[in-house]
Amino acid sequence: MSVASSGGRLGRRQFLSGAAAGLVAGAAGPAAAQQGSGPLQVPVWTREQGEGIASPAYGVPSAFEKSVIRKPRTPPKFPTAASTGTPLQHLHGIITPAGLHYERHHAGVPAIDPEQHRLVIHGLVERPLILTMNDIARFPSVSRLWFLECSGNTPQWTGGSAKWTVQETHGLISCSEWTGVRLSTLLDEVGLKPEARWVLAEGADGAAMTRSIPLDVVLDEALVAYAQNGEHLRPEQGYPLRLVLPGIEGNMSIKWLRRLKVGDQPFQSREETSKYTDLMPDGTARQFTFVMETKSVITSPSGGHQLREKGFYEIRGLAWSGRGRIRSVDVSTDGGATWRPAELQEPVLSRCLTRFRVPWTWDGGPALLQSRAVDETGYVQPSRQQLVDVRGVNSQYHFNGIQTWKVAPSGEVTNAA
Ligand SMILES: Nc1nc2c(c(=O)[nH]1)N[C@H]1C(S)=C(S)[C@@H](COP(=O)(O)O)O[C@H]1N2
Ligand SMILES: [Mo]
Question: Which residue numbers delimit the Moybdenum cofactor oxidoreductase dimerisation domain (predicted)?
């Protein structure tokens, strides 16, 4: 039996009872003034001409969507070393609109003139090169739908705040269609020397962010991207050029990319020694933990939501794996005692967000909502306890434990991680 058919069996009446109640409430509320008194009156916006075209010339969301915005994370020590989270609770499907893509900047957003921007490729190569943006645009291009996730996403190693929304627990993930040149294509052009094993990537921002990337990651589809969701990158996403390394911690996808240096070993930059390592319970640190492991989260209902009445709800969420495709997602409404398979929305792509859904009838009692993803390698998303048993609680990065949202009989939804 598919989950969709069990949803269908609930019948139309049950889906619509809430909506009909809403309509009655609406007719008595502020909307009544606009709509007239009965259902389907001709509203004022149907009786007059709308706004002309080209106002503004670059389209923006409806004025009624003002609450759908990025949100700054914990107050930064410096205003330019900051991050903002994507409002996952307000989004549908799998693509993040560019204006809502999460941000993580270590030294603010540089204003780079693409005419003056250069990419240097040197080190253990046969023919070092300096490329202009026009040069880069001439190479064969590819487009890929991939998520990007900061390894600092979900800062819940020692628990989180009950008040956190999914924007705060999981907002440092976004998903775009990226277009650019394969990094391997550029490296073919310069010719790798036989000793080549690692590539240093450096950004042109005030942080001059630098990370060492092993050759297997380079050759695994890594992109030097200039476009995102059909248009050139936004300044905050690395305009005019960035790396996008699929399934790899966001920090390594160097923005404002200006230099690639090929070496025979890792370069041991600040971001891979003092930062972006994982402190284990025995005091040793794991270094070069690149892959973003399988993870999922319910985005609706989620923290900060208020269920207004008993009855039908569609539980909706997102799942992803840095190792490939999502194979399945199970959902529990009783804190993990029982699980039901969710329906996966196609396309289910490798290292991309996957949307899942499961029908749920809320009986008005307390509930604990959880999702657990499995990827095509068979890796199962761990519970918080399973993760902490292995990793301890000294880490800052790579928390991929199962998220719990608590639904109170009042309908209030809070973070129970
Ligand atoms: N040059 C440069 N690249 C950078 C950063 C930066 O501060 N400077 N931040 C990194 C981090 S920590 C992450 S998670 C991603 C964030 O990319 P986004 O801001 O496009 O979401 O970019 C990475 N690349
Ligand atoms: Mo990050």
Answer: 288-399
- CA dihedral of residues 365, 155, 373, 413 (deg, nearest 10): 20
Q: Is the dihedral of CA 117, 218, 169, 156 positive or negative?
A: negative
Specify the CATH class of 98-276 in words: alpha beta
Rounded to whole angstroms, the Cα distance separating 93 from 345 reads 8
Closest CA to 377 of 316, 331, 302, 327: 327
Q: What's the pLDDT band for 14 if we cut at 50, 70, 90?
A: low
CATH topology of domain 295-415: Immunoglobulin-like (2.60.40)
Fold: same for 98-276 and 295-415:
no
Measured by CA distance, the residue closest to atom 10 of ligand 1 is: 251
The per-residue pLDDT for range 199-239, each reduced to its tens digit, is 999 999 999 999 999 999 998 899 999 999 999 999 999 99
Cβ atoms of residues 395 and 288 within 8 Å: no
Q: Whose CA is nearest to atom 16 of ligand 1?
A: 104
Strand, coil or helix: what is 319? Answer: strand
**Which sequence spans correspond to the domains of the chain?**
98-276, 295-415
Task: Give the residue, by CA position, lying nearest to ligand 1 atom 11.
Answer: 251
Taking the CA of 397 as reference, the closest ligand is 2
Q: What b-and-e string marks burial along 23-37, b requiring 16 or more CB atoms within 10 Å of the CB?
A: eeeeeeeeeeeebee
Tally DSSP H helices, then E strands, for the chain.
8, 24
